[in-house]
Structures are given as structure tokens and as C-alpha cells.
Specification:
By secondary structure, the protein is of the alpha+beta class. It is about 25% helix and about 30% strand. The structure holds zinc ion. Zinc ion binds next to loops.
Length: about 130
């Protein structure tokens, strides 16, 4: 269910951008950055996207997902570490609980690729 709602929000955002363009470009790829700690399954997200975009302006658009690892920072040890999702979140050195997440919670559109004219592909990066 998580992925279904995420997809709805994603489509809404892309549609908003698309409709604001003077010449509605033909979107080819949507690149997403998804943190490991968001608990979003890339496979489920792709599936939900495919289902929800059928017969819309986004039909056939490829969803490219780049996952970012979960990285936390231990203030006692003054170093970054990679918590084990579902297993161990605390610092492996001193066992302090995870409190400062540096990476892994991202969930955003990196860029939208679309056909600018017949021969060229142009990238557009919304700040979402
Ligand atoms: Zn530590």
C-alpha cells in the first residue's frame, strides 16, 4: 500500500510539471532516488507505477530507481557507519542508538528525461 500512495504522489508531481510546459514533452524516463530507510521496495514501486500509468500520458515511461544506503553518524565515535536495516541500528563500535541519519531517507525525483526535439534528449531536474 505504501508504494501505491507513493506512486500517486509521484504521478501527481510529474503531471503538474508536464502540464506547466508550453509544449507538452514526451517523457521517456523518470529517475528517482530512494533511500534504503524509506522501506520502499523498488520492485513494488515499479509495478505500481506501471499499473497506475496505463492509458495515461505516462504509459511506457521507464522508472529508474537509484537506491541510497542507510548511513548514520555516531557523535560519540565521531564517525559514520552503516546500520543493518532490520538487524542492528546502533553504532557497531560503542552501541549508541542511531540518532543522526545522514543518508537513506531520501525519496525524490532526480530528473525527468524527455524528448526535446526529434534528435535530442534533454534532462530536466525539478527540485522536489
Ligand atoms: Zn559509536
Amino acid at each position: 500500500m505504501h508504494e501505491t500512495d507513493m506512486t500517486k504522489a509521484l504521478i501527481f508531481t510529474v503531471k503538474d510539471w508536464w502540464e506547466s510546459q508550453t509544449e507538452r514533452p514526451q517523457i521517456t524516463e523518470i529517475h528517482l532516488i530512494v533511500g534504503k530507510f524509506t522501506c520502499v521496495e523498488p520492485v513494488s514501486l515499479k509495478f505500481a507505477f506501471e499499473v497506475q500509468t496505463g492509458n495515461t500520458f505516462l504509459e511506457g515511461v521507464e522508472l529508474v530507481i537509484q537506491e541510497t544506503p542507510l548511513i548514520a553518524f555516531c557523535h560519540r565515535c565521531q564517525q559514520e557507519y552503516a546500520p543493518q536495516v532490520g538487524l542492528q541500528y546502533g553504532c557497531p563500535e560503542c552501541d549508541s542508538p542511531m540518532e543522526d541519519i545522514r543518508s537513506g531517507r531520501e525519496l525524490k525525483i532526480d530528473r525527468i528525461e524527455y524528448i526535446f526535439d526529434e534528435a535530442n534528449k534533454k534532462a530536466y531536474a525539478p527540485n522536489i
